[in-house]
Amino acid sequence: MRVRGGGGSSSSLEMSSLATNPLITSLIPKIGIITSTLLYFSPMSAVRAASKDESLGDLNPIPLAIMAISSVCWLVYGLSIQDPYVTLSNVPGCIASIWYITAVLPLVKGDQLKNTQNIVVALSAITINLWTYLSLTHKSIVKVRSALGLFASALFIVLSASPLSTIKTVLSTRNSGSILTPLTFAQVTNTALWSAYGLAIKDKFVYGPNLTGLGFGLVQLVLKLSFPSK
Question: Per residue in 93-119, is it b (16+ CB within 10 Å) or e — as a string?
């Protein structure tokens, strides 16, 4: 690999040192399991409040719908590559996110209900068909892992951007109440850690979506600071 202004030897050495650095390859993903759990649990208080009040309020159900499918896809990818860090970081999320969407769906009304249901059904259908195709066509394990990683990455990018689905409302009302503060901070912290780990192990399906998610998280953070919740 070459970089502007010089040869690739120093860059290769830097990447090699990252890949063998126990701080990057062991400690950071262990912390990442904690931050991933915090990310998945960050909507819990808002969901519990909405369920108790029997009112959705400012809570945006779309990220919860995407999270339910995304967490399952990342769990399957982690199992396929036999990476304990990627796997364990998504187990709590699968359970929590399925509860979120089942808890809020009875509170969603009108077009918002139709949109949320369509997202759940569409993403579930795509996921099931992908898994069926990969199994019945007897793809090699390398191709299976690649397909699972690509799909999980795409879903995570959509998940990371989904809180911004209310950006028009945020800008017009100057109120960022629809963007959950705990979810925003958890997303920024979590994606930063997993980006570092993905770069260290040279897995584009880990660092690619997490770097993108970090960017979306920072945009949400700017909106939260610029337009505080009312």
Answer: bbebbbbbbebbeebbeeeeeeebeeb
**Cβ 89 vs Cβ 39: under 8 Å:** no
Q: Tell me the backbone φ, ψ of residue 3, rounded to 5 degrees.
A: -120, 155
User: What does pTM read for this prediction?
Assistant: 0.75
What is the identity of the amino acid at 103? A
Are residues 148 and 82 in contact, defined by beta-carbon separation less than 8 angstroms? no
End-to-end CA distance of the chain: 50
Encoded tokens for 131:
């898994």
User: Alpha carbon 193 to chain centroid distance?
Assistant: 13
Q: Say how far apart CA 63 and CA 43 lie, in whole Å.
A: 10
Please check whether residue 41 is in contact with residue 96, taking contact to mean a CB–CB distance below 8 angstroms: yes
C-alpha–C-alpha distance, residues 108 and 65, integer Å: 12
Residues linked to residue 3 through DSSP beta bridges, in sequence order: 6
* Mean pLDDT, the chain, integer: 85
Residue 159's nearest CA partner among 198, 213, 196, 204 is: 213
**Model pLDDT, residue 42:** 87
pLDDT at 110 over 50: yes
